[in-house]
Amino acid sequence: MGANFLVCTDFTPANFSDVPEGAETFSVSGSPGVEVFTVYNIARVTEPTGKAYWPLNAGVDVIISVDTASKALNDLEVQVSYFGLQKAALGHSVLYLTGTDISLDVDTGRTGKVKRSHGDKKTWRWGPEGYGAVLLVNCDRDSFWSREIDLTSTQLTSLDDLQDMAPMVLSCDGPDELFDSHKLVLNVPFSDSRRMGVFCARGGNSLSDYKQVLGPQHLYYEVERRPGEREISFYVEGLTFPDADFLGLVSLSVSLVDTKTLPEVPYFTDTVTFRMAPWIMTPNTQCPLELYVCSVLDSHGSNEKFLKDISDLVLKANCKLIVCPWTENRNDRWIQDEMEFGYIEAPHKSFPVVFDSPRDRGLKYFPYKRILGPDFGYVIRETQFAGVSGLDSFGNLDISPPVTVEGKEYPLGRILIGSSFPKSGGRRMAKVVRDFLKAQQVQAPVELYSDWLWVGHVDEFLSFVPTSDQKGFRLLLASPSACLNLFQEKKEEGYGEAAQFDGLNHQVKRSINEILEDRILRSDNLYAQRCIDWNREVLKQELGLTERDIVDIPQLFYLKDSHAEAFFPDMVNMVVLGKYLGIPKPYGPIINGCCCLEEKVRSLLEPLGLCCTFIDDYLSYHKLCGEIHCGTNVRRKPFPFKWWHMVP
């Protein structure tokens, strides 16, 4: 019996106990619906022709296949006739068969629908020619009255939840009498039982029509087949994302078991394998859908003007603005640090998933309480023993656009994580987070050096912007050298007395001459430039970039207890909404009525088709060691590329 053939068995006629004495050869035939095949060693046996028969003692095996289920027990037969030297039939043996259709099928072809599979269902292969079913982690909350993530419940809380699960069909056609002495058993390995849940569907529109039959508390299930039932539907949910201790593959099987024997004997087993869909980040080059920002109140007032400027930018970019009120953020404005938006995808369904960082400050409950919901998932990785450092915030987590590195394609980009490299010791992102990101496999992480910064986040010195040319993007890097060179040019043009922070009443102004003559500031920026240059080489190597792909954005830093902070608002710490950029207003020296820093940045980015809007974030963000990117968070459109088509 088999998944692809209803009955598939083999026998050797010479081994039958009722072979007549003197038999030398045999012939075999089947009743309608039965196909007969012979297997033999061509070195020992010649296929008979005409009225000749198969030799009996030459190791000839007979294979029998049936492609339709029986209507009754033993309604199929195979007859073996035995012949002596005189070619007269000496006797006959009859083998009675019952055909059953037992098959476990899932969306192996990745079309979004379950189809009968005649291929390998036990293995899972990557690539455009690959195969194997995909499971979504059921990490959203489809029921409005439930307070928990769907995967935590062993009961279905909403019929909509079925759409998040992978359909699975058990074919079980055959005579009802057969199942009086045989049973169908679904099994899941112990190691996989906590990774997946299986619900049996009995039709209808009631939640009670669906019950969990496999999962952490159930390793096997005796299928309740009803008389005349040919197919039984199941729904499979993922319970955990790939991680350091989980490669992402899970399997389950069905067995037809003979209950008349002790111990019970499985006649046939069919196994299917799933891969858990990975959590996928989206880079700045993907279209923005929603921008999140916090409303806060400081000693100098609210950030109402900042919110208005962001609202205007969002309107230009044609995306949605979501303001997190003070009552929900508890005056924690760093919404980029709290969470990262991504998504999960299977051939039949995709939905966004917010990754909650280990950083638990005022926004601690916002992702779970306000973002988790119907078709919006949630995942978190928490540190168990070690404390949380500044590098665990998700301003220290970024993603490149798709790249190709020495022939190796990364069609979903590569994750960038700030770390303590190249120095020993120092701060590093929590291992549980790094392990999680690596385990997703589809966006191979790269660690950069960010511990030279006071806050320690990669968004303080880099950003990506989309372009309309063949490359499709540029990497922006903060550049002290570019800033000092620009100021030197302006000095030589006679503008040495033009002042940094011009227009700010609450900041001491520094002329270009003073900045260039400040040896400590120059030394600080030589150090900062060396740190950025180290990252520059890593990024060129790991992302396959050339100097033409990098734009140097003028920026100065100063050291505070051996770590660097932005001397003026950090312009690479921008929010990217398509071609519209919300850039921290640098308050640079005013020359001929224009800020020379703004003018320089426009000259670098606007020829690439980008629109620069400089937004004042000085008091509400910059003075608190952050900028616009730190204070906003963007959910973006998923990649059109299907992750299962890549080869990690």
Q: Can you walk me through this structure?
A:
The strands form 14 sheets. The protein has a 5-stranded antiparallel beta sheet, with no helix packed on it. The protein has 10 helices and 43 strands. The longest helix has 25 residues, at 519-543. The protein has 648 residues and is of the alpha+beta class. Strand 16 and strand 17 form a beta hairpin. The chain starts with 6 loop residues before the first strand and ends in a 12-residue tail after the last strand. The protein has 3 domains: 5-98, Immunoglobulin-like, CATH 2.60.40.1860; 102-276, Protein-arginine deiminase, central domain (Immunoglobulin-like, Sandwich), CATH 2.60.40; 280-641, 5-stranded Propeller (L-arginine/glycine Amidinotransferase, Chain A), CATH 3.75.10.
- Please state the second-level CATH architecture of the largest domain: 5-stranded Propeller
Q: Summarize the main sheet.
A: 5 strands, antiparallel
What percent strand?
Answer: 25-35%
The low-confidence runs, each spanning 5 or more residues with pLDDT under 50, are 1-7
Instruction: Kindly report the name of the CATH homologous superfamily of the largest domain.
Output: L-arginine/glycine Amidinotransferase, Chain A
Report strand order across the widest sheet.
Answer: 8-10-15-12-13
State the oligomer: single chain
CATH-defined fold name of the largest domain: L-arginine/glycine Amidinotransferase, Chain A
Radius of gyration using CA atoms only = 34 Å
Could you tell me how far the N terminus lies from the C terminus, measured between alpha carbons in angstroms?
A: 37 Å
The DSSP helix count reads 10
